[in-house]
Amino acid sequence: MQNIETDRLLLRNFSEKDAESMLEYLSNPRVNCFLGDKISTWEEAISNANKKSEDDSYIAVCLKDGGDLIGELFTMKEEPDTYNVGWNFNQKYEGKGYASESAKALLQYLFEQQGARRVYAYVEDDNYRSQKLCERLGMRKEGCFLEFISFTKYEDGTPKYENTFQYAILKKEWLETANR
Fold first, then answer.
1. Which residues of 19-109 form beta strands (DSSP E)?
2. What pLDDT sits at residue 36?
3. Residue 118: phi, psi to the nearest 5?
4. Complete domains list, the chain, with CATH
5. What's the first-to-final CA gap in the chain, in angstroms?
6. Per the database record, which ranges form the N-acetyltransferase domain (predicted)?
7. Is the dihedral angle over the CA atoms 47, 9, 24, 149 positive or is it negative?
8. Per the omega criterion (within 30 degrees of 0), is the bond before 80 cis?
9. Which of 41, 43, 44, 137 has CA 20 to 30 A from 24's CA?
10. How many alpha carbons lie under 13 Å from residue 76 in its C-beta half-sphere?
11. Three-state DSSP state, 34
12. How far apart are CA 134 and CA 37, in angstroms?
């Protein structure tokens, strides 16, 4: 992936040097969908950073000033021209607009350079911050999938299924809002 710069951020490929920062935010996932990404050791962090460094669908979000890794974006292409996107940020950087700034840059990149026609995101019904982010990006809520997927279990061992919203935006809608 080519680097993308915003006013305050640099979006780039991951590298092994990101392991320490990854350990900080992936050791205690706050949203159930990231429980599968949980890491607990330095070795797991290095392995995770190296794995993501070889995959352009994972994008490191770093502060331009200092280069600190503060979170990540991810994409999954569905042929021919649709992308599923998501994000995961270190809690200590919340409330500063970094998720919005980086996600907006990602959507612009997907629409203008990767030929995306449609971009969508899945968001759990209790993840209010991501719902608000989707709305700030101009995405519309298309529906709610009841008991859509399970990332964790109840104390009795049965799966806990998440209600999940789908948000989406078309390129023509993105261009309309970008030109306002």
1. 58-63, 69-78, 82-89
2. 75
3. -145, 140
4. 4-178 (3.40.630.30)
5. 29
6. 9-176
7. negative
8. yes
9. 137
10. 6
11. helix
12. 22
Residue 25: CB atoms within 10 Å: 22
Q: From first to last of the 180 residues of the chain, give the pLDDT tens digit.
A: 789 999 999 999 999 999 999 999 999 877 756 667 888 999 999 999 999 999 999 999 999 999 999 999 999 999 999 999 999 999 999 999 999 999 999 999 999 999 999 999 999 999 999 999 999 999 999 999 998 887 888 899 888 889 999 999 999 999 988 664
- How far CA 14 is from CA of 20, 61, 83, 168, 173, in Å, comes to 12, 9, 20, 26, 31
Read off the tokens for 148.
Answer: 């859509």
Alpha helices, H only, 54-170: 98-113, 128-136
Output the CA–CA distances (angstroms, integers) from residue 154 to 36, 43, 133, 144, 158, in the order listed. 16, 29, 29, 22, 6
Q: What are phi and psi of 21, to 5 degrees?
A: -70, -35
Residue 18 DSSP one-character state: G
Q: Which two tokens stand for residue 151?
A: 């990332």
Please give the pLDDT value at position 159. Answer: 87
Amino acid at 49: A
- Write out the two tokens for 171: 């390129």
Residue 23: phi and psi, rounded to 5, are -60, -35
Structure tokens belonging to residue 158: 């049965």
